[in-house]
Specification:
Elements lengths: L2 E5 L5 H17 L5 H5 L1 H6 L1 H4 L2 E8 L5 E10 L4 E9 L8 H4 L1
Antiparallel strand pairs: 1-2, 2-3, 3-4
Length: about 100
């Protein structure tokens, strides 16, 4: 059983831990992705004015509150569109419809 929740910031310890897990999934699943792009995920959530997009992070968690997948999107509020930047599940978690749910 999984649940999907939206993460708004990295202030709460629960969110910080979950974002760190998302960053690890990004490292594992996107090996060509530069580390600086992975490191800026918390900043994207907290500083939408600087990046001109509102970043939206959804994560799927299992019953133990362990992140097993995520989707990161950029919402252009002034242009009324949304771009899916990344969507992935953790290694060995594929095929469980988590990506479809996200």
């Amino acid at each position: 059983m999984s649940r999907i929740r939206r993460v708004f910031d990295s202030v709460r310890p629960l969110n910080r831990d979950a974002i760190a897990r998302v960053q690890q999934i990004m490292r594992d699943q996107f090996p060509d992705l530069e580390q600086r792009d992975i490191d800026k995920v918390p900043e994207l959530l907290e500083n939408s004015v600087k990046h001109r997009f509102r970043s939206i992070l959804y994560m799927a968690e299992n019953a133990r509150c362990r992140v097993c997948g995520f989707a990161l999107a950029s919402h252009g509020t002034d242009q009324n569109f949304c771009y899916l930047d990344y969507i992935s599940t953790a290694k060995k978690t594929t095929g469980g419809d988590i990506g479809g749910a996200l």
